[in-house]
Design a protein that fits this description.
The protein is an alpha+beta fold. It has helices spanning 66-78, 149-166, 180-191, 197-206; strands spanning 22-33, 36-42, 57-59, 86-93, 104-112, 125-129, 178-179, 211-217, 229-233. Strands 1, 2, 3, 4, 5 and 6 form a six-stranded mixed beta sheet that branches. A three-stranded antiparallel beta sheet has the order 7-9-8. The radius of gyration is 21 Å and the shape is elongated.
Amino acid sequence: MIPAVAAGSDPGGHRAPVSACAVAVDVALLTIGDGRLQLLLVEPEPPSLAGTWALPGRRVRDDEDLDATAHRALEELAGVAAPDAHLEQLRTYGEVQRDPRGRVVSVAYLALTPTPDGPPPGPRARLWDVMALDGISGTGAAPRLAYDHARIVPDALERARSKLEYTALATAFVNEPFTLAELRRVYEAVWGVTLDPANFRRKVLSARDFVIPTAEHAPPGPDGGRPARRYRRGPASRLHPAMLRP
């Protein structure tokens, strides 16, 4: 029989010190604005980090689990209610010097949400175009990221880009009902490419249970033409066949 080991002790019977290590949750929230992929950043609270930007995050309370902390960070810092965003755990970041305030391990989440109706609440939040984040994707004027968030953001972007290939996650970026043109613009913004409308339509409709047609049609555009049919999310979570990146 394997002997029980008391909490706070090592197998040799010596009392092990309890490490003062905090656990935090940071959320990389992506959305589509003006046809471009955008990332929500906030100004961090510590005065020592003035002039930098960070992912919205909160320390984990003693009475809440990780998902609850992620939802709280989104609601308090981004005004995003829990049912309005797709949320999934990304990975854990635990480098010793990642937070200047002390030992903090961060569990990062990826959140996807449709285009917000207005600007982020409060003066400390801002949506940044991903292609303008120098050192992350593209070039141009860019914010300086606090902590180790310059590592988290590329991981979140690649997770989103890769999952659009084999899951129905693209529908998390659009409000229902939506047209196939609106869905195509999600793929174009996230992947940073231009897609042929006819080929895209064929691939989407060939993916079983990806989207479901409705009886609604969008009004004709300024150039006229046939009204575009509107769709809803289908029950599929994985795409068969996959939508591969060009």
